[in-house]
Design a protein that fits this description.
The chain is an alpha+beta fold. Helices cover about 30% and strands about 20% of the residues. The chain binds a DNA duplex through loops.
DNA sequence: TTAAGTGTTGCTCT
DNA sequence: AAGAGCAACACTTA
């Protein structure tokens, strides 16, 4: 679930609630989520460290420290929760940052896909993983987008989800974007040109902006989404929010795609 | 009851 | 050498 909009909400939580707070101690509840750093080293690295800022790149979150950053990836159903002094720790908390004022930041990850680590800088981390441009980065403009499409013969669904091509979309939001742009997931990326490329580019931005504005990933955020969003109907037996046609499913890059066979003609 | 499905990434294999 | 396939995980549904 945590794709670009969800991670952006976590980013804003840290920016708004955690900046300038100091980590009294880091409690590692599950060593299995540590990526490339031993538990004692991470604890030592975070102890007494003030949180300077926060940043997001694609689906990755960076909690910026005095030097370097704590990196977080949320896998399929991870989240970030601020727990007040007297609050109780959420289930499946894998890492907890205890601030010196008693509040705590909980990295929750039931399925334990994804994890946390330390990096020197966002740029270094992005280069190391070979991530493509963040989709909301202004530098990734229509021209860059159409160039990427033209260079690929794969189906558009696989291209939108490929983090090395562009970073931020997963299975759910790539379905949403294609639905909004009325493009069939099977369409060869290289065949999307001109007006339909513009439509796809716009849908990508509008869908992500709208999801962020509705508080993606947060409690009951689905209820706040516009009526024409596919997401709430994106399940077996779901219907198109526009024309009520039964949604179709197919496999792309090994993942299940949901689409409207009527609104998204092949 | 067992088996498949879900979601993302990284590895292996072709 | 791009891209398919699977393993990793925990939990739910058929």
């Amino acid at each position: 679930m945590p794709e670009l909009p969800d991670v952006e909400i976590f980013n804003r939580l840290v920016l708004g609630q955690c900046c300038a707070r100091t980590i009294a101690q880091a409690v590692i509840r599950d060593h299995g989520i540590l990526q490339g750093i031993p538990a004692d080293a991470l604890q030592a690295r975070l102890k007494g460290e003030p949180i300077r800022s926060s940043a997001r790149y694609g689906k990755h979150l960076f909690i910026l420290l005095r030097a370097g950053a704590l990196t977080m990836h949320f896998g399929t159903n991870g989240s970030l929760r601020l727990v007040l002094r007297d609050g109780s720790e959420p289930p499946y908390t894998r890492l907890r940052l205890d601030f010196d004022d008693g509040d705590r930041l909980a990295y929750v990850n039931p399925r334990r896909l994804g994890g946390v680590g330390i990096c020197d800088s966002v740029e270094q981390f992005v280069a190391q993983l070979g991530l493509g441009p963040d989709i909301l980065d202004a530098a990734f403009d229509l021209k860059a987008f159409t160039a990427v499409l033209a260079a690929s013969k794969r189906d558009i669904k696989a291209v939108l989800m490929d983090q090395r091509v562009m970073a931020g979309l997963g299975n759910i939001y790539s379905d949403e974007v294609l639905f909004q742009a009325r493009i069939h997931p099977d369409t060869a990326a290289g065949n999307i040109r001109g007006e339909s490329a513009v439509r796809l580019f716009s849908a990508m931005h509008e869908t992500l902006d709208t999801a962020i504005r509705c508080g993606a990933g947060a409690e009951r955020s689905v209820e706040r989404l516009p009526k024409d969003f596919l997401l709430p109907q994106r399940h077996r037996g779901g219907h198109c929010p526009r024309c009520s046609t039964a949604l179709a499913t197919a496999k792309h890059a090994g993942r299940t795609s949901y689409y409207c066979p009527r609104c998204q003609p092949n």
